[in-house]
Amino acid sequence: MSRKLLYCKISLLLLFTSSIFAQEVDEGVKYNFNYEWKLNVGDVDAKNQDYNDKDWKRVNLPYAWNQEEAFKVDITSLSTGIAWYRKTFQLPAEAKNQKVFIEFEGVRQMGEVYVNGNFVGRHENGAMAFGFDITSFLNPYPKENVIAVKTDNDWKYREKSSNSPYQWNDKNFNANYGGIPKNVFLHIKSKVYQTLPLFSGLGTTGTYVYASNFDIENKKATINISSQVKNENASSVKAQLKVNVADMDGKIVATFTGETITIAPNAVQDLKASKALTGLNFWSWGYGYLYNVKSELIVDNKVVDNVTIRTGFRKTKFEKGKIWLNDRVIMMHGYAQRTSNEWPSLGMSVPAWMSDYSNSLMIKSNGNLVRWMHITPWKQDVESCDRVGLIQAMPAGDSEKDVTGRRWKQRTELMRDAIIYNRNNPSILFYESGNESISEEHMAEMKAIRDTYDPFGGRAIGSREMLDSQVAEYGGEMLYINKSARLPFWATEYSRDEGLRKYWDEFTPPFHKEGTGGTNHTNVNGSKVADASPYNHNQDAHAIESVTRWYDYWEARPGTGNRVSSGGVNIIFSDSNTHFRGAENYRRSGEVDPIRIPKDGFFAHQVIWDGWVDTENPAAHIIGHWNYDTNITKNITVVSTADNVELFVNNKSLGKGARTKNFLFTFKNVKFEAGNIKAVGYDQKGKKVCEDVIYTAGKPAAVKLSPITRPGGTLADGSDIAIVEVEVVDDKGRRCPTALNMIDFDVQGQGTFIGGIAQGPDNYIGSKNLPVECGVNRIMIRTSNKEGEIKIKATSADLKTGELVIKTIAVENSKLTKRLPDANLPSYLEKGPTPLTPSFKKTRTPIAIVGVKTTSNQADAAKSYDDNELTEWSNDKEGNPRIEYELERKATINQVVLKLSGWRSKRYPIRIFSDDKEIYNGTTPTSLGYVTLDCKAVKGEKIRIELAGITKDDGDMNIVEITGKVDQAGLKAGDKANGQLKIVEVEFYEAVN
């Protein structure tokens, strides 16, 4: 496994394939409007064209005016208020007698737009893209125009028309990067044109591209285009679409036309075209294959407008508790990531390649799904996931509960706008209607929006929880595992633990003892986390906990029966500037830190998630490092998908490790010896299938710098960012994993120092002096708009100085440029097309229940196997805790699977009988939901389960909400139920013949 290479330096040139679009997408009418804005923070009246803004700060968008505070302060302390953005520009000469539209990918929280002093419109939801027709407000070429945008990111902002707040403008969840933190575009079109997908502000739906009639094996599908066309001429026109489909190499693979339609003056009409294509490459996990679908609008045999949609084609299915992608079952494993996806000192406003870099790391960790939390992601991240092959769950807007009235209407409007704006992005497979369960009526309303605006996109719509919904198409709880024979259920957040990257273990400076730090945290709502110790890990414990949590989902994976789990997402991927439980003022739950340096959990996930369902490439990862004092003896944990793991210290075998939770192999009391430690994995036949090796580094000798930059070169556009990794290495160039040296940085030439992050005062945000942690750190540098060199020097006491030169490339930086922010960014194709082979093998045979009898509460007995986790059977308090099931046939039951109320904290002493022969006698363990009990193989037709004693409360699984509330896991408040057998679901299994 190549984890050392990835851990030392992650270069985009390695992450991405060389396959790129042969030429830049050129719609001919869409301009990058990001350059040369001016910014003023404060409540002034700057809408008029002649307002004097000469002393304002010069910025390029995207740029949140408070972004320099990212990770410096807690989310609740981010600056808020009114800020103005202004830009002076000329229209191109060819815009005469044309339509002009402005598109904002998003403004936080409110944006009022003025053109040449005239009020154009207001947008207030703070999450979604919007646009305005500004044609009538503009001066023609060569006169100048001024656009001014007043923004207000007040946490308590209320909608002007209703005085209603926005539910998702919430201090708990949604980092408040104010102003214009996303891209802006200008569109120039003829008076007969294909509309923009900007329902908010324009009321239009744009162009819809989708595939149908899939034949995955033979690489066939029908490509369909439906484009909304508006005629603003004074007379009717006859119009049709001509469509060109180009592959990743720029080759035209199909050209076809649609029917000619007459469009009346000021009318809107959907024009359509379709064609069956062969030889298609289907978009897939880790295979971001995209096409350019160009629709030309032809009026009187002349092309008057064109729109290019970059999209991909894939087939989906959601049923029987499973998810299919291109006819192959895929189990969800990934991350619940904050939509802000922020970086230190930059917030969310990063170049498009950095979105690719971050999102591709999720793929590199073998994650296949990102669930953006609370609000819809910005278009840059949506399109990035297309390129890297990362499945997305797209929310609209929510905080933590269902609402009514205007606040609910705001949510439906946001979902409508987000679907219209993002329905051509193949990476979106799920629409999330709520961060908590919503009513069936509300779910039906959301589903109707999906069916209206994206009826053919192959996307499931649902909500968190919704476990008994008859309307939702998927669901899943936050902290626990769910199973279903009907809907796909995947956990929306299954781990909340935290671990700072700086802390290796209890034996390495700064010696972080498990559970220490941050126990006096006060939440935004005023509640206190009295004891946050279960969350505060070092890297060893954090990685182990992540693997432990995943085991419950893996155990219930597709192939294990009719009722299965479709997986889940770990919260979060990168440390986030949101609520926290540690001593730091940011959340440290990530598998990478805020500047995307991997933690040990990254490599642990890389091992356990290698496959669509079953393991496809056995791997091993030794948790930790191998640089200790000579007197240290510690337990070594290896994460592996092998059947057995052997550990070697300097080629001396320490034997096989004790296996737990399938993936964890523990070696007790391993004494440190300088040299190397190696883990070798074997299959059941004893064949070597994987290994991992860690070497002891020597004493710190030098500072080493390595660049992480935009594929194709760093741009001299005043906006591009270069990341520089800094390592403390020994005389052989190996990273020193325990180094904590302070590094002094000096940047000269065509770049400006931005900085990085480390534990310390203000988290070292903006500081030119910061320490390495575990021997490594990173800084960022913003380019100037002048081509040249950026010279970086990094010095540290008693170490050889590190030096690096980054050359920047001249590009067009005009106020109106057709060079779009994501121009020529490559797709990630490393995982290849969807395999045509099955993704799992059947591991056991479920035996159906056809009847049930009990002497206590017979009326509810069937609820114990009704495939509904919100119902249960329990004996009456004075009744007999015994229940007997009749099977569909005589079967040799070797496993019984139970979900018992209070699963996280209760242990049930039970006995199980098959036709009156005891096959199990023991106490159930705590779990994230389900327990699997191995039984004696006795053939029978009736299975009886009895409570054999008093249930015991156990606090070994500490799961506490951010509010400090202990989750009861299916028990009602104060319900001890120590004399009751409470069965939520029961399943019986026979071994595969």
Automatic annotation (TrEMBL):
Gene3D superfamilies the UniProt entry points to: Galactose-binding domain-like (2.60.120.260), Glycosidases (3.20.20.80), Immunoglobulins (2.60.40.10)
Domain Glycoside hydrolase family 2 catalytic intervals: 318-455
Extent of the signal sequence: 1-22
UniProt keyword annotation of Signal present: yes
Lineage top rank: taxon: Bacteria
Any one Pfam family match given in the protein's UniProt record, by short name: DUF4982
Residue ranges of domain DUF4982 in the record: 634-690
Name of this protein: Sugar-binding domain-containing protein
Organism lineage string: Bacteria, Pseudomonadati, Bacteroidota, Flavobacteriia, Flavobacteriales
